[in-house]
């Protein structure tokens, strides 16, 4: 079933102009190389290919609006037919600190950025100093001449703002106007993008942009691609829309980076989406309120990161014992504890797999990009209700806040299935035993139904019991859902095979590393295998995807190779591990270099 186009029409018109953040942080870009934007040669391995693409960096201080400026640059490239990936790097500071966005456009789908830059848009000197490599003369630099000095083309933003009586934040419009001229982008395209994606003050923004546009000369022309523009979504927006497509009725969350923008997005669009959004006082209240919604018959989801999820684990166990369906979005960042709150990591897999006391089934999915996030968020909501279990969506900072081109028309989503309903014949048994372990549902207010849920060991009616036989019966009932989960998931594509599908050397990866592994694997002639479902672990599908390999290299962004450990429990033994755990995701170049060290 196709997703409603209307969800993307308003998103493309409004929400993408308000993207607040788009990724973790690439320390390697502080001394970036340069390359031509029209046609580049990929030379990180044995294979050589030429593709049309461009990379643009815009940088400045926190408070300069770098994320919204990056989103506008992304829309310019989008309207030229490029497929987009945008990454935003920022420290945990409200003011000050160096912020930058990398916008990569390619004629083909991309899910990572490169270290080679075609344009640098510098709002201050720090951006020039950190990112300009003097050994490479091909980068076109557009800079704020009031605060920076560099080779390239300077613009006095203050002169433009003063003459137009514009506020300081509109300096972004000037630098983008200058970029458009330097890149050979027609003014009509600039005006179209601004009118569609700048939320207010459009006429003044256009005047400021035009002043800069007229001052500069073409430095490096970006040639259009033949692709039509696509909606641009960050991972959290895609998760939100997927949840709605899966029947979401109530979203409950306490802000915690990198899940916060999901709360902001759904709260801002709740009337259009027809949902309830609540921001309680803390994470314990979040999960208990969401369980209350679900008990009352409303499909609910919560969002958090690792530290917030720690507070939710007792409530998670309540969901397991009481068999209350719930979706939990746990967006990972660098830990333990506060760690690096605005940077990325993949260290919560084992935590999510084993969180909560006791034994009960759960679904865990880790989408690799916004397209997969849209699909699997809908599936997670549907499965949670079909089997009355907790379902986890496990993105990370890079995915949650990264922006991607999303083919809405090409995303086929499942039809929402109603959970098994009570037949109305009293007495109602909330935990009626069944071959599948799934009991018919009724909700408070139903005629002749007493809907009793219980965190204690209980009988079929929901009454507390300590009788050994009944405790065993109910435990077996809950655990039988695992087989139903496994069978039900067989209808979905749980494991992706990318790169060179028949290659004897395989990369095993998960989550947002999909994009960089796919690109590096293609260049180096490797098979890339990415399980999307991590619980119940798709061992048969994964072994089929790895059939014929002689070497398995596990690529993860954590220190302990958590997917490798999970695979090893099921008899899949990686031969090598390539790990990064400094809060920055792999770049294409850095991963190629690391892989060449271990590829036999």
Protein model, in words:
This protein has 600 residues and is α/β, with parallel strands linked by helices. The chain folds into 4 domains: 14-215, Pyruvate-ferredoxin oxidoreductase, PFOR, domain III (Pyruvate-ferredoxin Oxidoreductase, domain 3, 3-Layer(aba) Sandwich); 232-405, 3-Layer(aba) Sandwich (Rossmann fold), CATH 3.40.50.970; 420-492, no CATH class; 495-598, Rossmann fold, CATH 3.40.50.920. It is built from 20 helices and 24 strands. It has an 8-stranded mixed beta sheet, with helices on both faces. Strands 13-12-14-15-17-16-22 form a 7-stranded mixed beta sheet, with helices on both faces. The longest helix has 22 residues, at 468-489. It is globular. 55% of the residues are buried.
Keywords:
600 residues; alpha/beta; Rossmann fold; eight-stranded mixed β-sheet; seven-stranded mixed β-sheet; disordered N terminus
Instruction: Assign an overall shape.
Output: globular
Query: Taking all residues together, what is the mean pLDDT?
Result: 91
Give the fraction of residues assigned to helices.
25-40%
CATH class of the largest domain: Alpha Beta
Low-confidence stretches: 1-50
If classified by CATH, what would the architecture of the largest domain be?
Answer: 3-Layer(aba) Sandwich
Gyration radius from CA atoms, angstroms: 25 Å
- DSSP E strands, number: 24
Number of domains: 4
Class inferred from helices and paired strands: alpha/beta
Strand content: 15-25%
CATH homology-level superfamily of the largest domain:
Pyruvate-ferredoxin oxidoreductase, PFOR, domain III
Distance between the termini: 44 Å
The total of helices stands at 20
